[in-house]
Amino acid sequence: MKDSFNREIDYVRLSVTDRCDLRCTYCMPATGMRFLKKTEVLSFDNILFLLNRLAEQGIKKVKITGGEPLTRPDTVALIRAIKEISGIEKVTLTTNGIQLVNYAQALKAAGLDGLNVSIDTLDPDEFREITRVGDLKKVLAGLNKAVEVGLPNIKVNTVARGELTNEAICEIALLAKASKIHVRFIELMPIGLGKGCPGKTQEEVILALQQVYGELIPFEHRLGNGPASYFSLENFQGKIGFISALGHCFCAECDRIRITADGCLKTCLHMDDGCDLKEALQTENKEQLLAQVFTAIQKKPEKHHFLENQGDSRLMSQIGG
Ligand code: SAM
Ligand code: SF4
């Protein structure tokens, strides 16, 4: 599938739930969240019908996201089933890691091709403050388990919050030294509660790292499916990556669409665009589904407009990141 700017669309980010066991301050309010009813969330069968049809049209890569995907009881079974779909080459997962220790082995057995674990700080008190309820020990146990069972392509994602100190940046980067974990710093995006939150730029993070670990050497190859740019540090096994949608816009290479947990197709993270696929999925109406998908992809915007307008009114947990 190609959009009107000749970009090949072969990657779908699929949110399997809008629920989460954390409440990160830049992503979800402390209280008052109104979650989708079970009947509103795409079922196992809806998802498989959708991905089978998308794979027939050239989708090759699937990222499972949320909310927190590991709060959905059938997520591992879903991953196993998606791995069986002809044409799907890579299935990856992004998680907050809270329940990972219980699932790492099963995810490996299901054939997961890559795992992103979100960790914004290695200070347990600060972690609790950011996530409001999270226990960092559980996440680190999950990360260690993922390494131990041999899950491939493990990445740690850290949102570059304004409060992130240079010491904290260097401490998190160390995760990439001891084992082949890649650590990526994600620019804070003005979406949902992220609007108005202060963030650090890629250049500020690089400077902090360079002062302690020496020069960051650009790594020219692609790692995984995403838009990150990577750097090597001497004596580090993993790479240091940056995903900077504002400072280093990568829309020209955008290859993705998003599906929310209730079956809305979004062609841009920021835009209030797309369409509701739920009816076509529930009735398994292939013609209706593909007509909706093709029309939406033709309208995929050339780039986000973070700085010019308000964009989507949804929270990040309702989109999937
Ligand atoms: N719960 C899972 C997790 O935390 O990895 C998956 C969903 S979460 C919405 C996906 C990613 O989006 C996380 O790495 C999170 O830190 C990031 N995120 C949430 N709000 C953001 C924002 N405003 N700017 C940048 N990244 C954000
Ligand atoms: Fe939950 Fe992930 Fe949002 Fe944090 S960033 S509240 S873990 S969905």
Automatic annotation (TrEMBL):
Annotated binding of S-adenosyl-L-methionine, by residue = Y26, G67, S118, M189
Q: Indicate the secretion signal residues.
A: none
SUPFAM superfamilies in the record: Radical SAM enzymes
Q: How is the cofactor bound?
A: Binds 2 [4Fe-4S] clusters. Binds 1 [4Fe-4S] cluster coordinated with 3 cysteines and an exchangeable S-adenosyl-L-methionine and 1 [4Fe-4S] cluster coordinated with 3 cysteines and the GTP-derived substrate.
Listed A to Z, the keywords are:
4Fe-4S, GTP-binding, Iron, Iron-sulfur, Lyase, Metal-binding, Molybdenum cofactor biosynthesis, Nucleotide-binding, S-adenosyl-L-methionine
Which GO molecular-function terms appear in the entry? 4 iron, 4 sulfur cluster binding; cyclic pyranopterin monophosphate synthase activity; GTP 3',8'-cyclase activity; GTP binding; metal ion binding; S-adenosyl-L-methionine binding
Binding of GTP occurs at R13, T94, K155, R256, I257, R258
Cite the InterPro entries for this sequence. Answer: Aldolase_TIM (IPR013785), Elp3/MiaA/NifB-like_rSAM (IPR006638), MoaA (IPR013483), MoaA-like (IPR040064), MoaA_NifB_PqqE_Fe-S-bd_CS (IPR000385), MoaA_twitch (IPR010505), MoCo_biosynth_MoaA/MoaC (IPR050105), rSAM (IPR007197)
Top-level taxonomic group: Bacteria
Record-level GO BP terms: Mo-molybdopterin cofactor biosynthetic process
Q: Which residues bind [4Fe-4S] cluster 1?
A: C20, C24, C27
**Binding, [4Fe-4S] cluster 2:** C251, C254, C268
Q: Which ranges carry the Radical SAM core domain?
A: 4-227
Q: What Gene3D superfamilies does the record point to?
A: Aldolase class I (3.20.20.70)
Question: Which reactions does this protein catalyse?
Answer: GTP + AH2 + S-adenosyl-L-methionine = (8S)-3',8-cyclo-7,8-dihydroguanosine 5'-triphosphate + 5'-deoxyadenosine + L-methionine + A + H(+)
| Pfam family name, one | Radical_SAM
Pathway per its UniProt entry is: Cofactor biosynthesis; molybdopterin biosynthesis
- EC number(s) stated in the UniProt entry for this protein: 4.1.99.22
List, separated by semicolons, the cofactors it needs: [4Fe-4S] cluster
Assembly with partners or alone: Monomer and homodimer.
Role noted for this protein? Catalyzes the cyclization of GTP to (8S)-3',8-cyclo-7,8-dihydroguanosine 5'-triphosphate.
Q: State the similarity comment.
A: Belongs to the radical SAM superfamily. MoaA family.
Against HAMAP family, the record matches this protein to:
MoaA_B
Q: What is this protein called?
A: GTP 3',8-cyclase
